[in-house]
Amino acid sequence: MSAMLLCMLMCALTHQTFAHKPPAVFAIFEKYGSQQGVTMLEASEELMKNYQIIHFKSIIFKDGTAALPEIREAIIKDKTNAGRIKESLRDGLIYSGYYRFKTEDTTINRYLIFKVGEKNKTTLIYIEGKLTPEQLIELLK
Amino acid sequence: MKSAITENKNNQQKIHDLLDKYFEGKTTVAEEQTLRSYFQQTEIEPELKEYASLFAAWNSLYLHGEYLPEEPNIFIQMHSVPQKRLSWLRIGTTTAVAIAAVILFFFIQINPKKPTDFVVIDGVSYTDKAHLNKALETSLHNVRIDIKDVLDELQNVYAEE
Question: Which of B16, B43, B75 represents a domain boundary (last residue)?
Fold first, then answer.
């Protein structure tokens, strides 16, 4: 009986921990978020309630040249969990991309948006919330 | 003949009753002696044969002085008390684990880890709304222009769905 309960507890914890496995790009936020030439934003439901977003993370590199290989590598890893992918490639490298992650909870959507601009100005955004793809499009128009 | 059969049945019933009492730890020394005597004989009721070895061992202890007859059924007590404690320990542990599991589960459900709002610019952290909103607008603006074509295409895809 105890073993069964412990097993149930472990299952519950495991489910909580891995139900939404953090995207690989989160490592980029961790590593580069506090560096010079970088702006990292972490926003929760309170700031984003008008957008039906519960978690918003963005990181902007004034010049992402050094970090770009690592960012692209992380994106490639995350692509395996994406149900919807739209990318723009140049010389085989991702320059802009939209990824909608697969999710067990159909009420919550998770998106990753990536863009490399002029002079390798790089922006990476992670969005989690109830907003639909249509609402996201409206937000980014 | 009929009375002999009836007597035999009564004896068997008595042994069954004594066995029940014995395993409940309520037998007297005399009653235990009756049981030992019964299981020493060669004609044992088939369904009671499984207890014969137990009483043989018990009889052996008795003969070697390891059994204390002045303490009624102490042999059983010596073994049953730790089992009772073990039972309570199991019940206690199970209850504690169950309560902990329920509390932890609801705690996690009610208090999911919420990210706090902040923006880090060139290594300096800000939490005021002005900085937060500016960083938010910049982030969205940066991906807005270049990704427009992709999103227009996506809108068509979702419209089809």
Answer: B75
Question: pLDDT tens for residues B140-160?
Answer: 988 875 555 656 556 655 655
Q: Which two tokens stand for residue A33?
A: 């978020």
Residue A53's φ and ψ, nearest 5 degrees, are -110, 130
Question: What is the per-residue pLDDT across A66-85, written as a single tens digit (0 to 9) for each?
Answer: 999 999 999 999 999 888 88
The structural domain count of chain A equals 1
The distance of B23 to chain A (nearest Cα, Å) reads 26
Concatenating the DSSP letter of every residue in A40-91 gives EEEEEHHHHGGGTEEEEEEEEESS-TTTHHHHHHHHHHHHTTEEEEEEEEET
Query: CB count, 10 Å around CB of B32?
Result: 22
User: Does the interface predicted TM-score (ipTM) exceed 0.90?
Assistant: no
Q: How far is A121 from chain B (nearest CA, A)?
A: 9
Domain that holds residue B135: 119-160
User: Any chain A CB within 8 A of the CB of B56?
Assistant: no
